[in-house]
Specification:
5-stranded antiparallel β-sheet; mainly beta; 4-stranded antiparallel β-sheet
Length: 253
């Protein structure tokens, strides 16, 4: 099963939960249209996040173009990550508990042989003006960061790990002290990495994690990585402290 399939499975769980809680009529979206807001030289976007309480301020991360910020709903953009050791961004996360705090996971989640790797997670306490590394430097590719809405010091990171071979620094990592220390709370094997996390903010004890076993080989087709049986979907009912694999109703292969 591909990354897209596992991400779709995770999305189904979250969308179903949200729909049950607050159904939205389709006509409410009828007038919405997509439009390009730039910037034009940052590469393709891999993730985006807003600043709680400031609807015109948001961020996006680029595959190999760093982090960008707008404070006027996309009319102008400013680069924020140009002095760090990597420009490959895989994840962004903010939290209403600390609106000026921004977490970044470096290294785009990918199976491309030309995908740029990263060097762990970073945190900004001033809206992206300055950054500090917060560990997990060997995870290489980070697909998602989740911040517990009840306690911003509790953070989960989904790390894909090395895409060209076996690698132990992959899986779901959890910190309870804002990155001063990390615990690997979910690990499948050294070939399978975590690529996505999702949770309903109203029930943050329940967290889903998607895993993908994929290894890139430069001599194979550019868009056809090898995929293995380690891929799967996992569920936590204690805020990410532990996980159980979901098997009922989940496609295999």
């Amino acid at each position: 099963m591909t990354l897209r399939s596992w991400t779709a499975c995770l999305a189904v769980f979250l969308v179903a939960a949200a729909a049950a809680a607050s159904p939205v009529a389709p006509e409410d979206y009828a007038a919405l249209r997509w439009r390009l807001v730039g910037p034009l030289r940052a590469g393709w976007a891999t993730c985006a996040a807003g600043m709680p309480g400031r609807p015109e301020t948001f961020f996006f991360g680029a595959a190999n173009g760093g982090v960008w910020k707008t404070t006027d709903a996309g009319r102008t953009w400013s680069p924020l990550f140009q002095h760090e050791a990597t420009a490959s961004i895989g994840a962004l996360a903010t939290t209403p508990a600390q609106p000026q705090t921004l977490w970044v996971g470096t290294g785009q989640v990918t199976s491309r042989w030309d995908g740029a790797s990263g060097n762990g997670v970073y945190r900004s306490l001033d809206g992206g003006a300055t950054w500090e590394p917060r560990g997990l430097a060997e995870t290489r590719h980070i697909g998602r960061i989740w911040i517990d809405p009840r306690n911003p010091d509790v953070v989960l990171v989904a790390a894909q790990g090395h895409v060209f071979g076996p690698h132990a620094e992959r899986g779901v990592f959890r910190t309870t002290d804002a990155g001063a220390s990390w615990q690997k709370v979910l690990f499948v094997d050294d070939r399978t990495g975590a690529v996505d996390l999702g949770a309903d903010p109203s029930t943050p004890d329940t967290v889903f994690a998607a895993f993908w076993e994929a290894r890139e080989r430069p001599w194979l087709s550019y868009f056809q990585p090898s995929v293995g049986p380690g891929s799967g979907l996992f569920k936590s009912t204690d805020g990410g402290a532990s996980f159980t694999q979901l098997t009922s109703g989940i496609l295999s292969g």
